[in-house]
């Protein structure tokens, strides 16, 4: 079973999104703060396939979170934000997030993106030279 780490300080949003993800067959770990999310990622016995990260947490921003993980191997991280600041989005991507999406994204589209990321992890990229 594929595992998603959901890092968001909004308990209601975490609960709703977690239920949707579980119904789609994913195992979900929930973290209510950036620090607890980082602790999950530092556990070597956990296999986390994708991280869904709220940009504005009470204890840090998404950029702070990504900076804490610079020295660790990390799964793909999708940052979700309620803001549409292109400068922040650029910084998030520069710090190693795979995607930065608006929190208003439909559940169906978010699930499709997560599924795409899971498939991408399972299929090795083989580049064949042209002959």
Strand content: 15-25%
Q: Radius of gyration, rounded?
A: 15 Å
Instruction: Give me the strand/helix succession.
Output: EHEHEHEHEH
Largest sheet: 5 strands, parallel
Regarding CATH, which class?
Alpha Beta
- The global form is globular
Average pLDDT across residues? 91
Description:
This protein has one domain: Rossmann fold (3-Layer(aba) Sandwich), CATH 3.40.50.2300. It has helices spanning 11-23, 34-42, 62-68, 86-94, 107-122; strands spanning 3-7, 27-31, 50-54, 77-81, 99-102. It starts with a strand and ends in a 9-residue tail after the last helix. The chain is α/β, with parallel strands linked by helices and 131 residues long. Strands 2-1-3-4-5 form a five-stranded parallel sheet, sandwiched between helices.
What's the arrangement of secondary structure elements?
Elements: E1 3-7, H1 11-23, E2 27-31, H2 34-42, E3 50-54, H3 62-68, E4 77-81, H4 86-94, E5 99-102, H5 107-122
Parallel strand pairs: 1-2, 1-3, 3-4, 4-5
Please provide a brief summary of the model.
This protein is α/β, with parallel strands linked by helices and 131 residues long.
Question: What keyword list fits this structure?
Answer:
41% helix; Rossmann fold; 5 helices; five-stranded parallel sheet; 131 residues; alpha/beta
